[in-house]
Amino acid sequence: RYFGTKIAFYFAWLGYYTKSLYIAAFMGIITVLYGIINLSEDVMSYLFDNGITVIFAALMCVWATFFLEGWKRYHAEIAWKWGLLDFVVEEDTVRPEFQFRVKTKRYNPVTQQEEPYLSGKKKIANFLAGGVTMCLVLAVVFGMVVYRVICMRLLASFYNSLAHWLTRWECPRTQADFDNSYTFKVFLFQFANYYSSLFYVAFFKGVLSQLPGTRDNDGNVKIAGYRLEKAGHLMNRWEADYYLNPTYDQFLFDEYLEMVLQFGFVTLFVVAFPLAPLFAVLNNILEIRLDAYKFLITIQKPVPAQ
C-alpha cells in the first residue's frame, strides 16, 4: 500500500467501471449493426435511431442500476480483503487553517484545553454565503452560455452579410464566380465562429500549463523519468522526486470527476450515439495506464492515507 487505500480504491473503481462498460459497449455495437443492416438511403439517421434504440435505452437504465449496486458489493468485498471494514478513524486532525482563522475558543472538557470553536450562527452564515456565491456563479455560467449562443447567431448573420458585401466589392465576372467566392467566405467565417473554441482547447490551452521536461532557472531538469540532471550531474532518486510536479490534497477529485462526467454522458446521451460506451472503454483502458504512469513517474508521491 505504497500510495494508500484512497488511490487503491480509485484504481479498483476505475477497473470495475471499465469492465462493466463491456456489456454496454456490446449492446451499443448490436444497435448500430442493426441500423446498418436495415439502413435506408433515404433515412441515414436510422443508423442510430432504429427499431431497437428504445430497447437499448431501457437496457442502459438497467445496466446503470446494476453497475451502481455491483460496485457497492465489490467495494465491500475488497474492503474486507484489505482489512478496512473494522478501520475507524479515532480522531480527525484539525486543519491548521481552521486553527489560524477561527479566533473564538471554547473549553473542551475531554481534552481540558481551550480549542478553536466556530459557532452555529457563523456556520450558517458561511453556508449561506457559499450558497449565494454558488448561485451567482451558476447564473454567470448560464448567462455566458446564453450570451455565447446569441453572439454566435448574431455573428453568423453578420458574417453572411460581410461575405456578401466583400463578394460584391470584388465584382466577380460571372454568377458562378460570385457563388464560389461567396461560399468560400461564408464557410471560412462560420468555421471560425463555431470551431474557434475547440481549436483553443485542442492546441493552445495546454501550452499555458507547465509540462514535465522543462528546465528552471537553476538548470534543474523537470522531466518524468529516472535519469534527471541538476546542473549537469545525475541526481539521486529521492532528490529527483523533489523536482517533479507537486500534488495537492484533492488531487484524486479531478480523476473521479473526469470519470463521473463520462459516466453521465454514457448513461444520459447514449441513445444519441450508441457507440459512446465503446469509445469510453477504449479511453478508460488508456486512462488506467496513463494514471498509473502519472502517479509513479511524473508527480511527487502523495502522502499515503486510509
**How many strand elements?**
6
Mean pLDDT: 78
Unreliable stretches (pLDDT < 50, length at least 5) are 210-217, 221-231
- Strand percentage: 5-15%
Number of domains: 1
Please describe the biggest sheet, giving its number of strands, its sense, and whether it closes into a barrel.
Answer: 2 strands, antiparallel
Rg value: 28 Å
Query: How much helicity do the residues have?
Result: 55-70%
The strand order across the widest sheet is 1-2
Number of helices, where a helix is a run of at least 4 consecutive DSSP H or I residues? 8
Terminal Cα span: 10 Å
H/E order of the elements?
Answer: HHHEEHHEEEEHHH
Output the structural class.
mainly alpha
Net shape: extended
Would you give an account of this structure?
There is one protein chain. The protein has 306 residues and is mainly alpha-helical. It has one domain (5-298). 64% of the residues lie in helices and 5% in strands. Strands 1-2 form a two-stranded antiparallel sheet. This is Anoctamin. One of its GO terms (cellular component) is plasma membrane. Residues 1-214, 233-305 form the Anoctamin transmembrane domain. Belongs to the anoctamin family. The chain crosses the membrane at residues 21-39, 51-71, 127-150, 260-286.
